[in-house]
From TrEMBL:
SUPFAM superfamilies: Winged helix' DNA-binding domain. Pfam families: PadR. Residues 13-88 form the Transcription regulator PadR N-terminal domain. This is Transcription regulator PadR N-terminal domain-containing protein.
Length: 200
């Protein structure tokens, strides 16, 4: 649908506001840029601000107050609504099983917002999906033109098979780390404790 922010940027924006408690658009942008999000997703500053405004219109974010800005008009500080929290968790769980590498990466960034057992379950699903796609891509090769002829479809299938094989290996390793007790998750957090998204 035209004008609708992609799931990845919606998840990132909601996740930042939820983690910080309150944030204006520039603070969300600054936080995401500090993660170098523009290097592992297609998310750019305009899409961040667009998502903030859209999420406010949808009632997922709400205006808390206006703060003076050293340049230009006052900045609107946003908080996340109950509907926004529900949307965040819906997008987060979807991202952790998504075959889209950018969306999956955004899910990994906020996976600690979920209980450990739920993350194990979702990563196991991601692993199954990645392996299955790799198999299906290889099964398609006989249906495509000769490998030596343009558009080299068989070679492209090998490329994408390699991508999903690599994703499966990475996911299997991460799944093992989570199962082994690495990282802290929502059910490990003490009341009132704060944590930054990510896997470090």
């Amino acid at each position: 649908m035209a004008g609708v922010a992609a799931p990845t940027v919606r998840l990132l924006v909601l996740g930042v506001v939820r983690t910080r408690g309150e944030a204006h658009g520039y603070a969300v942008h600054r936080e995401l840029m500090s993660w170098r999000v523009d290097t592992w997703t297609a998310v750019k500053p305009p899409s961040i601000y667009h998502a903030v405004k859209q999420l406010e219109r949808e009632g997922k974010l709400h205006s808390v107050r206006a703060e003076p800005s050293p340049r230009g008009p006052a900045r609107v500080v946003y908080g996340i609504t109950e509907s926004g929290v529900e949307e965040f968790f819906r997008l987060l769980e979807g991202a952790l099983i998504s075959p889209d590498i950018e969306e999956f990466g955004a899910g990994i960034a906020f996976m600690r917002s979920l209980p450990r057992d739920r993350v194990v379950e979702l990563l196991a699903q991601q692993l199954t999906v990645s392996r299955q796609i790799g198999v299906e891509l290889q099964d398609m090769k006989p249906q495509w033109p000769d490998a030596a002829e343009p558009p080299h479809a068989q070679h492209l299938l090998d490329l994408w098979t390699g991508v999903f094989d690599a994703n499966a290996r990475w996911t299997a390793a991460m799944l093992g780390r989570v199962r082994a007790g690495e990282f802290s998750f929502a059910d490990d957090q003490t009341a009132g404790s704060a944590f930054r998204p990510g896997i470090t």
